[in-house]
Amino acid sequence: MHEPTLIQSPNLRKFSQPSKQVTLPSNTYILSLASLPTRYAISTSSPSSDTIQLFDKSTLTPLSKFDGHQGGNTFLRVVDRFAGEERKTLISSGKDGFIKVWDERSKSCSIKLSNTSNDLSVLSFDVSLDGLLVAGGTALQGEDALILYWDPRKPTKPIRTHSSTHSDDITCLHFQKQTTQIRNLLLSASSDGLISTSDADEDDEDEAVIHVANWLGCSISQAGWLSSTSTSNSKSKVAGIWAASDMETFSTWTDELDPLQSLDLRAPSVHTQDRTWVSDYLIACDISNNSNELMMFMGSNEGDIASIKNPTLGIPDSDMGSKAWSWTLQNLWTHGHKEIVRSVLWDEKNGALLTGGEDGKLNLWSGFNPENQGDDIDMDESSMSSPGRRKREYEGDGDMDVDEEGSRKRRR
């Protein structure tokens, strides 16, 4: 594992206060965020309810609420096409074993994808680019961790089940949205440490699995596809796949799942005269629609957020040398949360970042443009009263001692 470096961008932007904030009832965790044309959808969990709520994008005014899933919501996603219809569609999965499609007009579930073992929690899912195939990944129960496939026009039972691709909770499923020789190429990752790519249209599971990699000693919590990038000699190459573990390690792989890079996400840090930033955990990653670069959103145990990126991700170390391990700190969002941040949504179209945490706060941060060329500025765009300001050790306090054993871990 290489030792990466983190440098502060000369165009760093610092947001010290959200432009809009909503506080949900105490003991509410905001788990997932999704974007509809005029509304944000959030999935929450609390001792008393597990709901999906819609908020106005401009004002964060609450608009409507769905009951969610019995036992708890696990994932929330908006897709462009579903069951032959081309429109933004809100979909969720839950511990009740269902994947539900929500109708904003009737404020109810319009389609419910069922499996034959509803006691298996569905932890992850995705929908194919044409909207005609849904894949769902289950938690491990006994010896079974399943990838279930549905035709959404026939939701009462799966059209096929793959039961041997993974041997533990299936935490991530992502269809490749770029054109490939395989029409429905599915990326899956699991707590068993395996990353796999499969032909989702193949009934025979032995024939379906195309490539497999074992990230030894890691329980994979997040994974995704990397977009095409250009190397220093202008040759375009498919960057492949990224993965993150619940021990805050990060890796990249080719599309054939050959390893490229591996690092501890807590290792790269900034220590300057006026700023110190040390990442405690990865919140999420997202791909820019403009630059095709991966943006990583990191969190601190105090509830603050940073975005970092490395444009050479997915390019072999031998091609880029030390540049492959040089990360840039681009944005900081501080004083918006008091607890661990569980979810972020990069609304690139509206230049905003939506964040949700274990403190029950939903924050909208305006003015986020990762390609900004301005100076280091302190954004304070809110007219609301400022939340209580706690000392942030990375704002002008010099070096800090990091107690790794005493640092509170993110709860997943």
Topology:
Elements: E1 5-17, E2 20-23, E3 29-35, E4 39-45, E5 52-56, E6 62-66, E7 73-82, E8 85-94, E9 99-103, E10 108-113, E11 122-127, E12 134-138, E13 147-150, E14 160-162, E15 170-175, E16 185-190, E17 194-199, H1 205-208, E18 209-214, E19 220-230, E20 236-245, E21 249-253, E22 259-264, E23 269-271, E24 276-278, E25 281-287, E26 294-299, E27 305-309, H2 317-320, E28 326-333, E29 341-347, E30 352-357, E31 361-366, E32 377-380
Parallel strand pairs: 1-28, 1-32
Antiparallel strand pairs: 2-31, 3-4, 4-5, 5-6, 7-8, 8-9, 9-10, 11-12, 12-13, 13-14, 15-16, 16-17, 17-18, 19-20, 20-21, 21-22, 23-24, 25-26, 26-27, 27-28, 29-30, 30-31
Task: Give an overview in words.
2% of the residues lie in helices and 49% in strands. It has 412 residues and is mostly beta strands. The protein has a single domain, classed as 7 Propeller (Methylamine Dehydrogenase, Chain H). The chain has a six-stranded mixed sheet with strand order 25-26-27-28-1-32, with no helix packed on it. It has a four-stranded antiparallel sheet with strand order 2-31-30-29, with no helix packed on it. It has a four-stranded antiparallel sheet with strand order 3-4-5-6, with no helix packed on it.
